[in-house]
Amino acid sequence: MPTLGPKKVSQPKFQKPIQIEKLSQGNLSRDLCLKCGLHSSCRTPFLQPLVPDGYTGKLLLIGDAPYEFERTNSPFSSLGGQTLKNILQEEGYNRSDIAYMPTLRCRPAKTPSMAQIRACAPFVYRAVTLLNAKHVLALGPVASKSLSNSGKSQPIARLRGREKVCTYDGGKFTYYVTSSLSQLGTSPNELARFREDIARLALAVLAYPKTGIPRNNVYLGFDTEYTPEKVLCGAVSDGTHARTVEASQLGKLAPLLSKATIVGHNLPVDLDALIKAKVPGLKFAMEQWLQGRKQRDTLLLAKLVDENRGKGGYTLESLLLAEYNVADYKAPTESLGPDPTLWPVPLRDERCRLDAWATLKVYEAHQDRTRGPEEITHAISMTLYRMRHAGIYVDIHRYRKMKTEVYAEEAAARKKLVRIAAKHGMKTFTAKDAEIRELIYAKLGLEIETRTKGGLPSASVKVLKEFKNEYPEVQAILDLSKADKLKTTYCDGLEAKFQRQPDGRFWLPVYINALAAKTGRRNSAGPNFQNQPVRVRQIFVSRFKGGTIADNDYCVDPKARVLCSDLIWRPAQALVIGQEIIAFPETGSKRKMCKATVTSIKSLTRPTLRLVTDRGSVVVSQEHRWLVKASGKHLYDWKETRNIQPGDYIPFYAEPWEAERSHEAGYLAGLLDGEGWVTGGNVGFAQNPGTVLEEYKAGLLRRGFNVRQYSTNKVQTICTNGPVGEKLRLLGTLRPKRLLPKASKLWEGVQGWGKHSFPAKVLAVQVVSKQGDVIAVGTSTNTLIVEGMFSHNSKLEPIAGGWVTGEHRLTEYFTKYPNGYIKIGKDFFRKDIEPKTKEYTMMKSLVLAILYNKKKWSLADDIWAQGVKLDSNYEKHTDEAGKLLERFLSELFPGVKAYHRRQEDFVLRRGYVDNAVGQRRRLPLPPEPMRSDKFAYKIYMRFKAHVINQAINYPIQSLASYVTGSALIDLERALLRQFKYSYVDFHTALMDKRWPMMPLLCIEVHDDIVMDIPKGMEKKTKEVTHEIMETVPTLRKLLPAFDTPLSVDTNMGATWGVK
Description:
Shape: globular
Number of strands: 39
Number of helices: 35
Largest sheet: 6 strands, mixed
C-alpha cells in the first residue's frame, strides 16, 4: 500500500524475562507482593485461577483485574461476564471448556501500575503453562500488558486477531487479545468485535494465495507500493492466485485490469499510482474508475457494512482479520518502518502481493452485506479525492500578517499575565493549569463553584468567563487562552501543512472523508476546514490571477436584531466578525443554548419576505430558515420562510429589549448589584421586609415582569418567574454591573425552550421585494436568535428533514383555522370553548404533551400548576390526566408523532435505521443491567436516549449529505463537459498541479460548496452551479420521490468568507 513518507520506528525497550513462580509463592513473605501492596486493601488476596472440573483445555481467559471475580469467584457474575458467558455458549463452548485466570491476584482500587502487573505475571504465566489451553485470550489492556511484558499501551483494534507470542524465562506460548469484561457490559460496538474474536478461534487457517497470474478477471484485487517520488511495484489477485510486478512491467497487467471490476483498499491512491506509472492500455477503464464505476473500495464498503468499528478498525489487516483466521503478514515490513524503499525487495513484493489478495478477500466477505448506495458513494469519494488534489491556495502575505499579529497578541497576553501573577507573589508563572488554579482560587480568592472529575477546582474557560468582568486577572487568562489556541492550531499547526509550489506560492490539500462521520455527514481533517475561524479563512485565495472564491449562505434583513452574549440586541448590519452571540445546536432534540461567534458578514440582494408572527415581524430572504414546531416530543423541523404556513409555530426565546437609562432603572440595577444574585435558574433579590423590597417589586411589575416572593427565616426574596428569556430581559434592560457577567449561568447549557416558554405563532408570510437588501450572517453553530426566534444560516439539512418526516395531521388545525386550540377543543370536548378557560388551558397542555411525548405525571404537573385540578387528590388527578391524554390521542391524533415513534420503535427492535437511499446506521444497545444497579442503569438509559436520538437524526443528516454529494459529482461532470476535459486528463492535471483554466471544486463545508473560479467565468459558473445544485440529477434519479425544491445563493470574493 502507498505510504506518506518516512517515519521513525520506535523499538521496544528490553525487559527482563518473567520467571515463572508457583501459585503458592504468592503470600506476604514474597518481596514483590510486599512492594505491590494490593493485598492490604483486598478482601480476598492471592486469588486462585478458576478451573472447572473436567477441564477440556479448549480456552483460557486472562482477565483484566479481579473486580467481580474477587467478590463472587466467578468471571461471569457481572453484566460483562454474563454477556461473555452467553457469547461463548452461542459459539459452542461448554462450562468445562473454559478456565479463567485474573491478571492480578489481588483487587486494585484503580488502574494498576506496570510494576503491580509484573508482580503477578509469574503466576499468570504459570497458570498458562499448567493448563496448556488450546487458545489463550487476554481480556483487555491490563491482561495484554501482562502477557506482552510491556507497559506501552496499544489500541485493542491494533491487537485483535493477531497471534501474539509471550516469551518468558524458559519457554513461550501464543495468545490473542480482545475486549475487557467492562467493555462487553457497556459497549455494543465492542460486543460485535468480541463476537468476531471468538468466532475466529474456530476458523481454519486461511492459506495464502498461490503465486501466479490471476485466471479470473471479473473482480481483481489490486495494490501498489510507491513513494511520493515514484511507483515501485503493483500486484493483482483473483483470490486464489496473486502476482507482483515491477512498476515498469505494469503494462503486462493492463489486459486483465481493463476488463475487470477493480477492487482496492483506499483505491484512489492506487489509481494515482497507475496514472503516475503511465501504464498503457488503461485509458478507457481509467475513465470509468475515476468516476467511481467498475471499481470497489473496501474502505468504503467496510463502512457501509459496519460504521462502528472505531479508530484503527478500518485498516486492511483489521478488516481481513475480522473475517478470517490468517497470519499477520505485514509484521516483517512494519518492523522496518513505513518507507517501502527501505524494505528488501522480496519482502516488499510479497507484502504488495498479499495486500492485493487481502483486499479481494475482504470484498468477498463484504459484498453481500453492504447497506447503502455503492455507486454514488464511490462517485462522491472520487470527486472528493480530486478536491484533495485541487486543494486551495494560501495568501502567504495575509498569513504572515495574521501570524505576526497572533504571535504579538499571545506574547502580550502572556507577559501581562506574568506581571499579574508576580503582583500576587507568584515569582515563576508559565500558565500551567495548576498555576492558574493557584492564581484564581488561592490568590484572588474566587469561590469554587465546580470541580473537575479528579476533584480539583475547575479552571475551564466556561468557569472563568463568569468572572471576567469582575476580575481583570481572569480576563487576562482568557486572552492568553484564546491567543495560544490561534498560535498553536492556526499558525504553527497550519503552517506545517503548507506546501510550496514551483511558482513560489503556497498551497494546502483538502482532505474530506466520504463516510467518516457516523451521523451520515462528511468531515475533514488535516486541517479541519469545517471549523476554521473567519480570521483564518481569509488567508485562502484563488490560484488564478484575478480569480475569485465562491461559497453559499442564507440571509436576514440588515435591521433584524440578533441576540449577543452581552445581552444586547444588535442589528445584523452592526455585527462584526468574532462577535459572540447566543445560539443553539443545529441538530438534536433537547437543544441547549451555547455561545457562538459570527464567522462571516455579507451584503446580498435576494427576493425577500416578511414573516409576521404574534410576537412581531422580520424581513428575510425567501430561503431563510426557521426552527418550526413539528409533531412529536422535542421534534422540530427547519423550514424555509417561503414554505412556512400561517399557524406554524417557531420556538420563541425572548422579546428584544433596549437598555434602560432612567433614574429608576439605575436604582433597581444598584439594588441588584448590592443584594441580588444569579443562579443556574433564576435572578433574585433578597432583603428584609420594608420599603426597599416593595420598591424593587413594584419596579419589576411596572416593567411587565412576573415575580414570585418567598421568605427564608426573616429575609424576603423576590425572583422573576417565566422562561429564561424573561430573566435575561431583566438583566439586559437594567444591566447591573456585578450580575451581568453571571448571566451565562441562566442560559448556557440550558435547554432553549420548555414548558414555561411560548412559541411565536405565524400569522402571515408576505412578499416584500423581488430584490431586497439582506445580510448573510455566518456563525460557528450555523444558528442564531433573530427577533427572538430560533433561526438558521444554512438550509439543506432542514429541507431533507422536512421531506423525511413528512406532514402531520396536527398542522391542519393551525393552518386551516384562526385558532387551532379552539378548533381542537371543540372537536375533543364537543362544545365551543373560549380562551382563558379551563378547557382551553387543558387543550394547550394536551397539545404540548403529545408533541413532547409527555407522560401522565408530566401533564398532571403542567395543568395543576396552571390551576386546573381534575381531582382534589393529586394521585387521582394524575390518573385522570393519563386517561384524558390517552383519549385525546386515540380520538383525534392516532398518527401524531408518527415519524418519531416509528423511528424509536424500529431502532429498539432492530438495532438500526435506514435512510432514504438505503444506507444503514447500526445502533445496537448494550445489555440492560438490573435496575438495582442504579449507576449502570443510569448509563444504560442515557445510551438508550442517544440511540433514539440518532435514529431520528440520522435519516435527515445523511440524506442532506447525499444531496451535497450528488451536487459535487453532478457539478464536476457538468464543468468537465463545458470545458471539454476527460476525467483522466482532468485528474492527471490536478495530480501534476497543472491547474486547468476552469472553475475547481475546493472545499465542502456542511451544505456549502467552495469553488475557485478564474477571472471572467463568474457569471457562467454561477448559472451552472445554481442549475446543478438545485436539480441534483444523480440523487433524483436514485431517489425519484425526492421532489423538494432547492435553491442556492452564491457569494464571491477575493478570499474565502469575504465579499
